[in-house]
Design a protein that fits this description.
This protein has 3 helices and 16 strands. By secondary structure, it is mainly β. It folds into 2 domains: 96 residues, Immunoglobulin-like, CATH 2.60.40; 143 residues, no CATH class.
Length: 306
């Protein structure tokens, strides 16, 4: 009898809750589109500028969304302190980028840059600097104690005795897969492991804690977002592997860039957390838009993990 009473009481509560539910509908205000800039200026490389339109959080996503997100026919000018260089729009595989092969547009150490974008009645301005690069003292691979072939890359680095230096590092495995993985990665044999240099979470730092010191540090392997490889999940995630040939891209940057990267990575880590606070990233874009213009002084090293 007691079990029957308990079940009946549970059903009664469920019925009451269902009868008290009310569907609420409300109209969300239209979101005004704004320009979004993501650009990179690196030493020894041409500028790479992506210009897109913002999208509302609840806007529907379909096959035309990606086609319409890029801003075309904008007037994009790069000023290197001496002359204005117009950037041309290049489109490939549906992706539009503004760039220039003019020698004056190639990134130079110690140079301050100003980027001006005009699209319709909107204008935005971004400024950045390419600091002088600082190479790593040495690199080596160490296997993680629990594994024979998986591990991390270690480095020795000397920071100059001047406060305010900021850094970010990337790594790219340029060797190719020697075997296939289970579906959907059962056709990766012969493909290069990383298509571009990747930065893991925690890739950027300033020198407040190690100004003027020589020290060792370790870094894990980054992932390529939605273009994850077959070894980006499971036991190999975050590890380099014996036999990998890795190009390490160490960069110097400025404090505003460091703040932006740190905030972006924190937002990525806390995505979906009920304890995270929404907020805008510390952009370096002014005017009718938002976004970031990176400036990197780059040094490269190559390491064979063995």
């Amino acid at each position: 009898m007691k079990s029957i009473i308990n079940i009946s009481f549970t059903l009664l509560v469920l019925i009451i809750n269902l009868s008290c539910q009310k569907q609420i509908e409300f109209d969300l205000p239209d979101v005004e589109q704004t320009l979004v800039l993501e650009g990179t200026l690196e030493s020894g490389q041409p500028p790479v500028i992506f210009l897109t339109n913002s999208q509302g959080y609840f806007d529907p996503i379909d096959s035309s969304t990606f086609e319409n997100v890029f801003v075309h026919d904008a007037n994009v000018i790069l000023f290197n302190g001496t002359e204005n260089i117009p950037l041309q729009e290049i489109t490939f595989n549906g992706i539009s980028v503004y760039t220039s092969l003019d020698p004056a547009a190639i990134g130079e150490f110690g140079t301050n840059y100003k980027l001006t974008v005009q699209s319709g009645d909107k204008e935005l301005i971004a400024r950045t600097k390419i600091p002088y690069s600082l190479g790593l003292d040495s690199l080596w691979f160490e296997a993680y104690p629990a594994y024979d072939s998986l591990g991390f890359i270690w480095s020795k680095f000397t920071d100059p005795d001047t406060v305010g230096n900021c850094y970010r590092w990337f790594a790219q495995r340029i060797n190719r897969y020697t075997y296939n993985y289970p579906p959907p990665h059962d056709s990766v044999l012969g493909q290069m492991k990383d298509s571009r240099p990747l930065a893991p979470i925690g890739s950027s730092t300033d020198d407040k804690l190690f100004n003027g010191l020589t020290f060792d540090f370790v870094f894990a392997r980054g992932e390529d977002g939605i273009f994850e490889g077959p070894d980006d999940e499971g036991i190999e995630e975050g590890f380099f592997k014996r036999g990998d040939t890795v190009v390490v891209k160490s960069t110097t940057t400025t404090y505003p860039i460091y703040l932006y990267v740190r905030a972006m990575e924190n937002a990525a880590v806390s995505n979906g957390s009920i304890f995270s606070s929404p907020g805008n990233l510390p952009y370096n874009v002014e005017g009718d838009g938002i976004g970031i213009l990176y400036g990197y002084g780059v040094a490269y090293d190559t390491l064979i993990c063995e």
